[in-house]
Design brief:
Order of helices and strands: EEEEEEEEEEE
Shape: globular
Number of strands: 11
Largest sheet: 7 strands, mixed
Distance between the termini: 40 Å
Strand content: over 45%
């Protein structure tokens, strides 16, 4: 078991930045692939980014590539999502998630075993 708690969401103007954090407790953090997803009202939850167990390998959705950066600090049991050049279409509830899958190539919600409660990000135009 692992518990995930996101923080860092808020209201920001277009072009601004936010840094989300997700603190994990419970099972050894480094055993999980960590991902970020988001869900806008009326839309399905979508993949944003993921980091391998060591953090050396990362992968991004095309919509955020070059603007968002995922990183993790296994000593602090925390994964981060640095979001720059934010756009109104980035407005959503952002969730961190943990996967025990053996492959690093996990982008679908069903491939993740544990989820945080979400944090709201609102980007005004």
């Amino acid at each position: 078991q692992v518990q995930l708690v996101e923080s860092g969401g808020g209201l920001v103007q277009a072009g601004g930045s936010l840094r989300l954090s997700c603190a994990a407790s419970g099972r050894t953090f480094s055993t999980f692939i960590m991902g970020w997803f988001r869900q806008a009202p009326g839309k399905e939850r979508e993949f944003v980014a993921r980091a391998s167990r060591s953090g050396a390998s990362t992968y991004y959705a095309d919509s955020v590539k070059g603007r968002f950066t995922i990183s993790r600090d296994n000593a602090k049991n925390t994964v981060y999502l640095q979001m720059n050049s934010l756009k109104p279409e980035d407005t959503a509830v952002y969730y961190c998630a943990a996967s025990l899958r053996s492959s690093n190539y996990v982008q679908r919600p069903y491939e993740y075993d544990y989820w945080g409660q979400g944090t709201q990000v609102t980007v005004s135009s």
